[in-house]
Backbone:
C-alpha cells in the first residue's frame, strides 16, 4: 500500500484547464484578450468612420419599413441635417421615403426572393417634396431572430435625367431621320422620274446626234463628190488657159486670158480652202510624221515664191539650212505656203524672209515681212474663219480669210505651236515650232517639185488616162504645146489598146478615179505589166488620207487638181530625167 504522499494528486480544477489556475496564467491570457479587444474596437471605430463619412447613403431598416439606422449621407440625401432627424422623420419608409406602399412591398419581395439585390432603381421623396432617382444595393440579414435590410443608396438623378434627355434626343433624331427619310424617298422618287425623263431625252438626243452625224457624213460625201465634179472642169479650164498664156496673143486677148487665169486661180484657192477647212473640222486629216530635210522644204518654197515676190516688187530671201526635222512634210508645206502668201499679199514694199531659229530640241520656222503689221487687238481674230485685214499691197481684198484658219487647224493637228508678233508700220513675224529629228537619214519620198525646162519634154511621149473628156483635151493641148507627143485614153482598156498599137510612152499621167470603180493605179500597173517599169504619176482631186496612203505605198508622185502648170512641168521633168 502506498504512502499518502505517493497518492496521485486530485484532478485539475476548471481554472487550471482554461489556463487561469494560477496568477501567472491569468496575466498571460489577459494581455491577449486586451489586444484582441483593442483590435475589435479599432475595427469598430474604422467601420463607424466609414459609415459616417461614406459618400453614399447607408441605412438599416426592418421589413415593415421602420428605419433603424442611417449615416449622414443618407440624411443629406433625404433632406435632413442629422442622422437623428432622418430616423425620426422617416417613421414609415414606405410612406415617407418611397411614397408608395406598393413600391416598398415590391422592393421587399425582391429582396426576400434573392437575399441580395444590386442596382435596384427606384424613386424616393425628399423632405422638401423633391423626387430623386436612386439606385439601391440591398442585403437581407438576421439580427436577434429578426430579418432586417441593410442598404447602400446612391443618387442617380442626374444620370437618369441625362439618359432621359438622351432618349428624348434620340427620339427627336429618329423623328427627324424618319421625316428626312420620307423627304429623301420623295426626292429619290422625283430623281428616278427625272432620270427616266433624262434617259428618254438622251435617247432622243442620241437619235438626233446620229441623224446629225449621218447628215454630216452625207454632207462630206456630197462635198467630196461636188468638189470632184467642180475641180474637174476647173482643172480643164486652168490647163487650157495655161496653154493660151504661153501662146503669142495680141494685147487685148492676152489681157482677157490673164483675167480668166486670175479668176480661175481665185476660185481654185477658195474651193481648196473650203475643202481643207471641212476635212480639218471633221478630223479627216491624219498627219503622217516622217523625218526629212528642212533644206528640201525651203528649196520648194523658194522655187514657188521667188517669182511671186519679184512680180510684187519684193525681195525674197531664204536662209540656208542643213537640219533634219520631224513632221508631216505635206501639211507643214501648206502652213508655210499660207504664211508666205499672206506675207507677200500684205507687204507693199520691202522684203519677205523665210528663216528659222533653234529653240532647244525644236526649230522655230519663221516668216518675216516688212508690211504694215497687225494691230494688237486683231492678233487673235486673224486665225478665225472669214477674218481678213485690208490688203494694202494693191488696195483691195483678196480671198475670204480662210488661210490662217487653215494654218491654225493644221498646226493643232500636228501639235505644232503657232506664234505671231507684229509692230504696226514695221511688219510681222509668224512662226511654227517643229521638233528636230533624232534621225540623220531623211525618209525616202518622191519629189514633186524641181526646176524644169521645156526642152526636157520636147519629143517625149506622154500617155494621159482620164475619164473626163475635157481633161483629156486640155492636157493634150498643154503637153503638145510643151513639145510632147501625147496620146489619151479614158480607161485601162483604151490605154492598153494604145500601147498595143505601138505607142510606147516615156511617162504616164493618170487620174485616180476612173469609170466602173477602176483606178489610175490599176491602169498604170496594167501598162507597166505590158511595157515595163515606166515613170508614172497621178493627177487627182482626191485628197483623202486613205488615198494618199495608197499613192505612197505604190511610190507614185501626186498632183492635186486643179493642176498648176508649173508644178506639172516640174514633176514631169523630174520623172523624165531621174
Residues:
Amino acid at each position: 500500500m502506498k504512502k499518502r504522499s505517493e497518492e496521485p494528486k486530485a484532478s485539475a480544477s476548471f481554472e487550471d484547464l482554461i489556463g487561469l489556475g494560477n496568477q501567472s496564467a491569468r496575466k498571460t491570457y489577459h494581455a491577449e484578450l486586451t489586444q484582441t479587444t483593442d483590435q475589435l474596437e479599432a475595427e469598430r471605430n474604422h467601420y463607424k468612420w466609414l459609415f459616417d463619412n461614406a459618400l453614399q447613403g447607408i441605412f438599416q431598416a426592418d421589413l415593415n419599413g421602420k428605419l433603424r439606422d442611417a449615416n449622414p449621407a443618407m440624411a443629406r440625401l433625404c433632406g435632413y441635417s442629422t442622422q437623428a432627424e432622418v430616423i425620426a422623420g422617416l417613421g414609415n419608409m414606405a410612406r415617407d421615403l418611397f411614397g408608395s406602399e406598393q413600391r416598398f412591398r415590391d422592393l421587399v419581395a425582391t429582396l426576400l426572393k434573392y437575399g441580395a439585390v444590386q442596382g435596384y432603381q427606384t424613386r424616393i421623396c425628399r423632405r422638401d417634396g423633391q423626387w430623386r432617382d436612386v439606385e439601391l444595393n440591398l442585403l437581407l440579414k438576421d439580427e436577434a431572430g429578426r430579418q432586417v435590410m441593410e442598404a447602400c443608396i446612391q443618387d442617380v438623378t442626374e444620370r437618369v435625367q441625362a439618359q432621359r434627355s438622351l432618349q428624348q434626343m434620340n427620339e427627336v433624331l429618329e423623328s427627324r431621320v424618319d421625316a428626312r427619310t420620307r423627304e429623301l424617298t420623295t426626292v429619290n422618287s422625283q430623281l428616278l422620274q427625272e432620270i427616266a425623263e433624262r434617259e428618254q431625252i438622251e435617247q432622243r438626243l442620241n437619235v438626233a446626234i446620229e441623224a446629225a452625224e449621218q447628215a454630216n457624213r452625207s454632207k462630206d460625201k456630197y462635198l467630196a463628190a461636188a468638189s470632184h465634179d467642180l475641180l474637174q472642169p476647173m482643172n480643164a479650164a486652168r490647163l487650157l488657159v495655161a496653154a493660151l498664156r504661153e501662146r503669142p496673143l495680141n494685147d487685148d486677148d492676152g489681157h482677157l486670158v490673164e483675167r480668166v487665169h486670175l479668176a480661175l486661180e481665185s476660185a481654185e484657192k477658195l474651193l481648196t480652202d473650203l475643202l481643207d477647212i471641212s476635212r480639218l473640222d471633221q478630223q479627216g486629216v491624219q498627219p503622217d510624221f516622217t523625218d526629212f530635210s528642212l533644206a528640201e522644204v525651203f528649196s520648194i518654197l523658194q522655187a514657188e515664191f521667188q517669182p511671186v515676190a519679184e512680180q510684187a516688187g519684193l525681195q525674197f530671201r531664204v536662209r540656208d539650212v542643213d537640219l533634219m526635222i520631224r513632221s508631216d512634210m505635206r501639211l507643214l508645206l501648206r502652213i508655210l505656203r499660207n504664211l508666205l502668201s499672206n506675207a507677200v499679199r500684205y507687204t507693199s514694199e520691202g522684203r519677205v524672209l523665210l528663216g528659222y531659229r533653234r529653240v532647244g530640241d525644236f526649230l522655230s520656222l519663221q516668216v518675216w515681212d516688212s508690211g504694215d503689221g497687225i494691230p494688237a487687238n486683231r492678233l487673235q481674230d486673224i486665225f478665225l474663219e472669214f477674218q481678213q485685214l485690208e490688203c494694202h499691197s494693191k488696195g483691195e481684198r483678196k480671198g475670204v480669210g480662210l488661210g490662217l484658219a487653215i494654218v491654225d487647224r493644221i498646226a493643232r493637228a500636228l501639235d505644232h505651236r503657232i506664234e505671231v508678233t507684229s509692230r504696226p508700220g514695221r511688219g510681222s513675224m509668224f512662226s511654227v515650232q517643229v521638233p528636230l529629228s533624232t534621225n540623220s537619214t531623211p525618209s525616202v519620198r518622191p519629189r514633186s517639185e524641181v526646176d524644169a525646162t521645156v526642152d526636157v519634154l520636147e519629143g517625149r511621149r506622154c500617155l494621159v488616162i482620164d475619164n473626163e473628156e475635157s481633161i483629156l483635151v486640155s492636157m493634150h493641148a498643154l503637153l503638145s504645146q510643151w513639145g510632147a507627143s501625147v496620146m489619151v485614153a479614158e480607161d485601162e482598156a483604151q490605154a492598153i489598146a494604145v500601147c498595143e498599137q505601138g505607142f510606147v510612152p516615156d511617162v504616164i499621167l493618170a487620174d485616180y478615179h476612173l469609170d466602173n470603180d477602176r483606178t489610175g493605179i490599176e491602169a498604170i500597173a496594167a501598162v507597166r505589166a505590158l511595157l515595163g517599169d515606166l515613170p508614172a504619176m497621178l493627177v487627182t482631186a482626191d485628197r483623202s488620207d486613205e488615198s494618199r496612203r495608197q499613192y505612197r505605198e505604190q511610190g507614185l508622185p501626186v498632183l492635186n487638181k486643179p493642176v498648176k502648170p508649173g508644178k506639172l512641168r516640174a514633176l514631169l521633168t523630174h520623172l523624165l530625167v531621174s
Q: What stands out?
A: The longest strand covers residues 131-143. Confidence is low (pLDDT under 50) at residues 1-15, 391-397, 443-454. The radius of gyration is 58 Å. The domain at 225-284+447-578 is CATH 3.40.50.2300 (Rossmann fold).
